[in-house]
Amino acid sequence: MKIYRVLALVLACVVAINTPLFGWGNVGHMTVAYAAYQKLSPTAKKRVGDLLKLNPDYKKWTKMIPAGTAAKDRPMILFMIAATWPDQIKSETGYTNDPEGGPGSSQNIGYSDHLQHRYWHFVDTPFSQDGTPLGAIPAPNAETQMAAFRAVLASSDPDPLKSYDLVWLLHLVGDVHQPLHAATRVSKTDPNGDRGGNNVTLCKKPCKSELHAFWDDLPGTGADPNAAVLVGKKLPKPDATLAKDTGAATWIAESFAAAKKSVYVNPPIGPGDGPFTLTAAYRADAHKIASARVALAGARLANVINNELK
Description:
Blueprint: H1 2-18, H2 26-37, H3 42-52, H4 58-63, H5 74-82, H6 85-88, E1 126-128, H7 142-153, H8 159-175, E2 184-186, E3 201-202, E4 209-210, H9 211-216, H10 225-233, H11 240-243, H12 248-263, H13 280-308
Parallel strand pairs: 1-2
Antiparallel strand pairs: 3-4
Helix pairs in contact: 2-5, 2-8, 2-10, 2-13, 3-5, 7-8, 8-13, 12-13
């Protein structure tokens, strides 16, 4: 089993180096799923377990379960790993990095779809701090697709489609709770937006990190499910009233507000694309925000599954 854990870590590093980052890292997404799993009803746990078995990578997931995992915890670990699948396919043979707005960009056809749909991972809500004109929010996006997936889960559609939509929903609920998945700063430097902070560089000798990557990695790095379990056990308790809000538009608006208020705050994030040097205060505040957003995402994801999966 150790070799599979090593391979999983290597794969995570390759993906991080060679592709743009579009969400919490593997640990972040698995932590959201861990938090959600604790709140699923017994019926929902059984249902999602059956649906996940229909994923084409299910056998690979079983080999990624850490050695020594108790039998009772295996379904939970598989649920956590499944939440990373929309990022996994970015590096899998047979999946195409298709253009945003292409002919298949809004389709929902299940596992016969071999498009990566990277534009489904975010809602690029533009804002400007220097008066640069704003464009429209591109669609399809995370909000439009979550609505489509939730409708299928609540319907009498066939299980293979529900399986596909479930793994995407596990991922996208986590994505939109990351502030930089709901905002793009438009400026004279980036008149079309900074791609959720992917264009903004940070300096930590050498200057090669991006603002988006910093926020992605706040819950943790790597691909070990056990690391996500440890993070999940330390999450703050989410606000009960906010957790009951299952409206995706609200989740996205919260992340957008957090991005404007706490991500693009000067100092240290000034105008332009940097490089900028993060302060200790900025890092500490970012960790608190990320923990709260991950905890809230987990609670909301559980509510959606419990209420809508038929």
